[in-house]
Amino acid sequence: MRRASFLVSALTVLVAAPAVAQLDQLLKELDTLTRPATGATGDVKIGAALKEALQVGTENAVKLTGRTDGYFTNQAIKILMPERLRTLERGLRTVGYGSEVDQLVLSMNRAAERAAPSARKIFWDAIGSMTIEDARRILGGTPTAATDYFKSKTSESLTLAFRPVVDQAMNEVGTTRQYNELLGQAKAIPFLKTEDYDLDRYVIGKALDGLFHVVGEEERKIRTDPAARVTDLLKDVFGK
Q1: Residue 152 burial (C-beta neighbours within 10 Å; 0-12, 13-18, 19+)
Q2: What is the tally of structural domains in the chain?
Q3: Which of 19, 149, 180, 186 could be disulfide-bonded to 60 (CB atoms 3.0-4.6 Å)?
Q4: Is 7 helix (H, G, I), strand (E, B) or coil?
Q5: Is 120 in contact with 62 (CB distance < 8 Å)?
Q6: Is residue 221 helix, strand or coil?
């Protein structure tokens, strides 16, 4: 049963309830793989099943972040003012610019939400290039083995893909303008120290951190939470 647990864990990595129905038939058809499988044929089947499951799971994670309030109302990934600008933020709030700061924070999160869907193809490309050895490591790896795989394979490509989307979104939702206006107001306040800051780079980094956080949470859920085991097969295997 230990091999069965690893296999079903891999098949359902990152899959939340709305996506499980799409995999139900796949799980039933691959039930025979919950018995010991050896040789190249078994490895190929396991690899193919894992790739399909990861496609469904990453699609779900992208949908969770790439929607209105996907970042802003999720306290675990909400983008706040940069740490280096916290003193500036407190000073601006003290002199009555709190609502403007809040609007800037909202617009940074809106930019991240617009960028998230561009991760879909990059994730799927990484899944498509997965080797049998990659699949083995994920099958027997840590509770976030798939997430770690995505980080190593996609971080650079995601950064490049997110930059133009974030740049455009920050202009459209007014982030850049709001930041420049706040900076100008801060410079007029004698006791506040201001500095130039690459806000675009900051938002891109935080957007990726948030996306990988959600991917990791979806991966952990099916491995550890009995409430997430929404099929009879999952309940049977993980309950033992």
Answers
A1: exposed
A2: 1
A3: 19
A4: helix
A5: yes
A6: helix
Which domain covers residue 157, as residue numbers?
2-238
Closest CA to 146 of 30, 55, 27: 55
Per-residue model confidence as pLDDT tens digits over 32-66 = 444 444 445 456 655 665 676 677 678 888 999 99
Written as one letter, the residue type at 223 is R
The token duo for 221 is 């859920």
Question: Cα–Cα distance between 59 and 77 in angstroms, integer?
Answer: 18
Which token pair is 93?
Answer: 């709030």
Distance CA 50, CA 8 (A): 9
What is the average per-residue pLDDT within 77-106? 83
Q: 167: helix, coil or strand?
A: helix
Write the DSSP string, 86-108: HHHHHHHHHTT-HHHHHHHHHHH
In this predicted model, which residue has the larger pLDDT, 169 or 238? 169
Segments in the chain forming alpha helices (H): 2-11, 17-29, 39-65, 86-94, 98-115, 119-128, 132-139, 145-172, 175-187, 199-224, 232-238
CA gap 114, 68 in Å, rounded: 8
User: In degrees rounded to 5, what are phi and psi of residue 203?
Assistant: -65, -40
Mean pLDDT value across residues 12-32 = 46
Are the C-beta atoms of residues 108 and 209 closer than 8 Å to each other?
no
Measured between alpha carbons, how far is 116 from 128 in angstroms, rounded to an integer?
A: 20
Between CA 37 and CA 35 the distance in angstroms is: 6
State the Cα angle at 175 between 171 and 176, rounded to 5°: 70
